[in-house]
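Honest question from a wet-lab person: if I give you the sequences of every part of a complex, can you actually get the arrangement of the whole thing, not just the pieces? Trying it with mine:
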Amino acid sequence: MQADLEVRLTHDGSRWIAHHPAFEARGNTLLELDQDVTRCLLDRQLFQQNNQVMVFMAFDYTCIPTWIRQYAYHYFNRYIRLDLKSPTQEAQ
Amino acid sequence: MNRKWYSGMASTEDWWAVWLGLIMFLASVSSLWGWDLTGWMAKTSTWVWGKFSIETALKPSGKVALHPAMSLLVTYLVFTTLTCIAAWAMKLNVKRFFAAWTMLFALTWVVWIIGQEAHFKVPVHEFTKHDLSWGLSLGGGFSYLLALVIGLIIGNFFKGTAAFLSEAAKPEWFIKTAIVFLGIKIGVMSMEAAGFVQELVLTGIAATFVAYMLFWPIVYTLARKGFKLSREASAVLSSGISICGVSAAIATAGAIRARPVIPVVVSILVVIFAMFELIILPGFYAAVAPSQPIVNGSALGLTVKTDGADAAAGAILDELMRANAQANGVVWKEGWILMASLTTKIWIDVFIGVWAFLLALVWVYKVERKPGQSRIGLSEIWHRFPKFVLGYLIVWFSYIALASSGPEIAKTLHTAATPVEGSMRTMMFMLTFLSIGTITDFSKLKGMGRLALLYAIALFGIIAPIAYGVAWIFHRGMMPPVL
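Yes, you can. This is the full assembly:
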């Protein structure tokens, strides 16, 4: 799958965080995180409005204790399609 | 982060088990060109109290003219170099790793040598050979048990030392490496008894299918209805208990996008309960069903979680059952009961990626349907595939291919490969026993009352009895070859 944007995904114990050189988005759930990523993309105008953006989120395994890595070293990666509509457009 | 298909090849224990296994297998293959690159490996030998000497307790595995102490030194240097390179590649603290590894290695060999003392080890019919008036006849299993006990003492009473050793105490890495070495042994077994190995593999697949389809839904229902756990926690715990322990818990949690704290807590439970399984089940099965060696081995593979604990339990069962049979005048070949345990477990491991993928599809598209749907990549299956299995299969089939090309080649290869599947593999088992004890801290069970209770009920009340029934259906009557 081709992605338009790649971010590093972590979890700080209470929130999911998407790290990108241009922004950092957060959310208590992945749905909230996706909404915050959309907001960040619109704020920083990395993509044009009304575009669909495929985001690749690669989970950073450093948030899992090192001793677990010997048993398993992959958590998950996800592709998410975001519709870049500003809140005002969405309200309409 | 696993972005590409080749991610982790240099930076994970799973892949390094493959590299270490293949390096040693290739070293044994080099014998076909007249080289002896494995004969330096040290091995222990039976000794009698009061007559100890380094020459009786230790020997080089091959025909190389090395003093036993020199053989042990070469063994240390070779494995220290390889594991430190791996530690560097895995971005561990190499200085700490080196210090911890050295202590672990020294402890392992001391315990291994002690465990070879004749009063502990030799069977009754060999008492006269060693001039003994009494003995416990525990076989090679005593070394394993001793390593486990020493590890548990360190892990629970000398926590500073356990923390120091933790940089190198990696039971899952050691056992995965040992399993790649075991590829040689199953290669030898396949040449000796192809029908038996084929039956073992096929019935192992069938038993694995039952494990996935039966255990998981039962435990999930118990967690949801009986213990009122959340869907997330129930799914992760069910996989941890029912399938293959920590790797299944992590794979399932990832598949359902659970918060990472959930699989971490479940993993702690899995590791601690694996110790109970390892201590209780081999002795129990050996005592209750001494005439069902392969059923017992397979039942362990279905019940004991984590590869390290399963292989360790299989090795103890192999030793206990053979010692028991030997006392009754039957001498079974070594390793076949262990192989029954491992074959079942390896199949369970292999399918975890597919299971997690299906679970992810169900979870994302059915359970938590959301707008702007995320997609599940097929690469998730590959990322969760246990890579050491590749090493095991490569070694297994390469051995058969090479050994089938002629009796002279087969004989040369077998001689050179014996130190790898023999003493190197046993050393890795010993390191596993010591490490698994060291990293098991029973005090971590505090505060996990409800989860621990569910785990105990599910394991001993559901998984173990059903697993034994399934193993009995598929493996009853199968016996290891007699010497």
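Two things worth pointing out. The CA atoms of residues 40 and 53 of chain A lie 13 Å apart. Residues 30-44 of chain A form the longest helix (15 residues).
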